[in-house]
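Justification of computing resources. Each target in the renewal requires a structure prediction run like the one illustrated here; the chain below, 569 residues long, is used simply to show the kind of job we budget for.
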Amino acid sequence: MTETTVTRESGSGADSPPPQRSYARMAADESREDYSLRYAPHSFRRWSPTMVASTALGGIAYLADFAIGASIVFTYGFTSGLASILCAATIIFVTGIPVARACATYGLDMDLVTRGAGFGYFGSTLTSLIYASFTFIFFALEGSIMAQAMHQAVGLPVEIGYLLTTLIVIPIVFRGMGALAKVQAWTQPVWIIGMVLPFVVLAFEAPDAWGAFTSFGGTEGAGSAFSWTGFGLGTGVALSLIAQIGEQADYLRFMPAKTEQNRRRWNLAVLAAGPGWVVIGAAKQLGGAFLAFVALEAVGATHALEPIAPQIEALRPWLGSIALPAAALFVIVSQVKINVTNAYSGSLSWSNFFSRVTHRHPGRVWYIFLNLAIALTLMEMNMFAALNTLLGFYSNVGIAWITAVAADLVINKRAGWSPPYIEFKRAYLYAVNPAGFGAMVIASTISILAFSGLFGRYAEAFSTFIAAGLALVLCPLIAWATRGKYYLARPNPVNGPHATGPAAADLTATHRCGVCATDYELPDIADCPVQAGPICSLCCSLDAGCEDACRTSPPSGPVLMPMPTRRPD
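Resulting structure tokens:
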């Protein structure tokens, strides 16, 4: 199920030779493929800003926030836990703003933005793995929570529950963005009622519980006083969610173009669906910790960390015997909403990784199974039991990556050390850009050593701050030292800063790829000296025999200019 190629012929134009590459049916069907490795064209962005934002926010219905918040507060106490959650939310919000705006503006997912924001064409393959690991780690975490709910509700063995939670999302994710948007919209009312009702019940039935919660010292002897080490370690756990901006970006790339008419709605939608997710996320972490605290005496510390048990205990005073099925329904709906997003985003990241490494692309949908297989393995290994350690380790790498990208978008581009636009196509990029890639590798390596305890207790506690600080400083420093040399291997003559002619002004005009004979909008097209004409970004990525000739013998002029163009229907 891979694409096929035939011998390359030179020449291009309206009467070009037959296609030299034919994609497998799954890879060629963009209604399922969703431009997984490409720029999302204007003709495909048919959703309104409000619809895109609501779909993106529907994906943050997950209850891992409940478990993470409860785990932080139980381990480090309320005061340190509250400070940790708020600090992490602030960092995630600030770094998420430029990333969300870039993805929505340029119609690119997180991987493609990373390529052009300081990492280079192959440098971003490592971040594809980081992102893929985020999706399957959190799929496993969310799946475990759903399996716990099924076990409580109907006695289903958790091992079978793990398998069922994995299989249930496949038909939805298979159908792409259209199906995901419908699922998020249809399930939103049930989720909102289920999210709010437990807190309404407790407000009437246990009005003094919040006061007791604020003096809670945890279950491991941390005490209610503020602790710097507890604050640092708790922030590290909460910061493991920083890569969630990548999943938000997978939806934001379908945002319609910003115009004078929709500017206000566009800006609000991008802010809400991009970094705004963490405002709801932080509230859910605190709310989950509160529910777990209220249920602690009734169910014990272990079960209090499982979101289903606190839900049942909170609903029991009003719902009685139906508290269990009501809580189970809420948990299952919540976990389906997030795990379709985890599976979808994982398929995108694996597609990006393997297309560059193997020069083959069977289609996004096949990588769904790879992502889910890894997640299922983690569930069967009971990764839920090692939650804090696993997330604390992951956050050191995730924050170094996201901070380096944000530093490029905010600092390097404004200082002129980075191109003012996002160039994601192989034809114009160096394999590795030391600005972002080098900053991430250095920052994450040092912070992981600190996390392991090599530099002492305080360095261990604040390892994620070390990662963020180093990435923030090193990315601009390296870009300045190299004078931005490694951002562009050659200028883009048509839709880059050196663009000339009418085609440069009309990004919706289409050109026919000389390899697959399909029309693509201008930002997804490169000029290829081997083809002596246009080539789409994916065919360029999959070409294993050109030996990057465009970088050593680039076209003498913008070969796209003589090509006939047309506006999309």
